[in-house]
Design brief:
The complex is a heterodimer. Chain A is built from 7 helices and 2 strands. Chain A is mainly α. A two-stranded antiparallel sheet of chain A has the order 1-2. In chain A, a hairpin with a 5-residue loop joins strand 1 and strand 2. In chain A, helix 1 runs antiparallel to helix 2. The longest helix of chain A has 26 residues. The radius of gyration of chain A is 22 Å and the shape is elongated. Chain B is α+β, with helices and mostly antiparallel strands. Chain B has 2 domains: 165 residues, Cysteine proteinases (Cathepsin B, Chain A); 127 residues. Helix content of chain B is 53%, strand content 16%. In chain B, helix 1 crosses helix 2 and helix 8 packs antiparallel against helix 9. The chains are: A mainly alpha, B alpha+beta.
Chain lengths: 133, 332
């Protein structure tokens, strides 16, 4: 990549006044570094990934509202987590976390367990029990 | 208390931390040098590890390996510690800062408040330098940021004790012992040799064989997984290849910069030529990313377009096979 080819596309980095460093060659063929504001192929991939996450959040929300899953799954998705990550945060086996996705199990959880989840998601127990429409 | 720490932005966090810490301790080393000597370049397809619900591909060695190998090869010693107890981790950090000793920390990205929201994923192998504590705030030199930044005690504890894969467990590290002069010549040769060995390894998911393996998978994805998932996987490949920190082209340009610098140190013209060749290969990686993005941008998937990006990737694999075979010979 030549120095003048370092892409300066619009990207989500802009909002954080953030530029990333790229390596490229100058007119004499020497390597130099140059900042880039973003590159479309990357931005599109990232936007798609974020869309994917939002879809997952929305789908889990619907499952909770339909009584098919507990709010723990919804908050897990909202925090961009998956079961292995969440289980390492709450320090429980993943099968146990998955079990807590069942509304019937979730409704009987003690405040101690609920508190563990609420603390990780940084919400109150009341919010954990009731997700907003 | 004033400390003479110079923050320099780099492409990749681990190289950057090493480079900045070495410079602070009176041994300036560039980012490409750290990357090359530490044998940072790699290609590995890891089907069992899922990142963001897609199979992972790494373009670099495991976190921590670059510094480890770099230190061994140039002859410096590093002190490394992990902690169970956040209080102990904080005490050790404060102790070092009180002695004016900037340290490297491994942290999770998700709670790094100064990162753009879109980049805050549960990724735990990020590195930064803490160089001063002012009351309850730590001044942070994060190599991928243009300027220095800061985190409160609470914020720093959170990122040092992030959970999940590669949990940092408060990991702290800093160089403690330096030779009079760094033995760069031998270190460069060892670094190059190791990278060639990795890239030419007779393991199907590693190095040039791994690249071809993934090329063949891409051909099968639309039929096997459907268009939506295939596009998601393809997008993930590009993200991992071009993610912040790679310097562009899946670290190929940084590696080319390393070869250019090495050719001067070793007085070896062959390395200068190979640097140019690596730049061309880096451009091929960029072309691949660009064409792949055309597929997932339109969300329409013709089997043909998958075939053509797969062919591109297979060509890269062939080029790199020739390249690393030549590179191995060039330093003999």
């Amino acid at each position: 990549m030549k120095k003048e080819e370092v892409p300066q596309d619009k990207s989500n980095l802009e909002s954080a006044h953030f530029k990333e460093l790229c390596y490229a060659v100058d007119e004499d063929g020497n390597y130099v570094t140059k900042n880039s504001t973003g590159w479309d192929p990357k931005t599109i991939a990232l936007d798609n990934a974020i869309q994917e996450i939002n879809d997952r959040v929305e789908a889990s929300k619907q499952r909770v509202l339909n009584g098919e899953s507990s709010p723990i799954e919804y908050y897990m998705e909202l925090n961009k987590m998956d079961v292995p990550i969440l289980s390492s945060y709450v320090e429980m086996w993943s099968w146990r976390v998955k079990r807590h996705f069942k509304p019937s199990v979730f409704n009987k959880l003690s405040d101690k367990i609920l508190n563990k989840y609420a603390a990780i998601f940084e919400i109150s127990i009341a919010d954990l029990k009731q997700i907003k429409e | 208390m004033k400390i003479d720490f110079t923050h320099k932005q780099t492409a990749h966090c681990e190289n950057g931390v090493v480079s900045n810490l070495m410079t602070y301790n009176g041994h300036p080393v560039s980012e490409p040098m750290v990357f090359g000597i530490g044998s940072g370049l790699l290609y590995c397809f890891i089907p069992v590890l899922k990142v963001n619900h897609a199979p992972a591909i790494t373009y670099r060695v495991m976190p921590g390996q670059i510094f480890k190998k770099f230190a061994k090869r140039v002859g410096i010693k590093i002190k490394k510690e992990k902690f169970k107890n956040p209080k102990e981790a904080k005490a050790r950090l404060d102790e070092n800062l009180a002695k004016n000793n900037p340290v490297g920390l491994q942290v999770g990205v998700y709670n790094l408040t100064y990162f753009p929201d879109e980049y805050r994923f549960h990724f735990n192998a990020h590195n930064l330098v803490v160089y001063v504590k002012k009351e309850n705030t730590y001044l942070i030199s994060d190599p991928i940021m243009e300027e220095v930044t800061s985190l409160t005690e609470k914020e720093l504890e959170k990122v040092r004790f992030a959970k999940g894969a590669f949990a940092p467990k408060g990991h702290i590290y800093y160089p403690i012992d330096f030779p009079e002069k760094l033995d760069l010549e031998n270190a460069i040769k060892k670094g190059i040799n190791h990278t060639c060995k990795d890239m030419l390894a007779p393991i199907p998911i590693l190095g040039v064989r791994g690249i071809k393996y993934v090329a063949n998978l891409i051909r099968k994805w639309p039929k096997k997984h459907g268009v939506k998932k295939a596009n998601h996987y393809l997008g993930q490949i590009v993200r991992m290849q071009e993610e912040i920190g790679t310097g562009g082209g899946g670290f190929r340009y940084i590696f080319a910069a390393f070869l250019q610098e090495s050719s001067k140190i070793l007085n070896n013209d062959k390395l200068a030529d190979l640097s140019k060749e690596m730049t061309e290969i880096g451009d091929l990686w960029r072309d691949f990313a660009l064409n792949a993005s055309r597929i997932y941008k339109n969300r329409k998937a013709l089997q043909d377009s998958y075939e053509s990006v797969a062919a591109q990737l297979a060509e890269i694999s062939d080029r790199e096979k020739v390249f690393f075979t030549k590179l191995k010979k060039a330093i003999k």
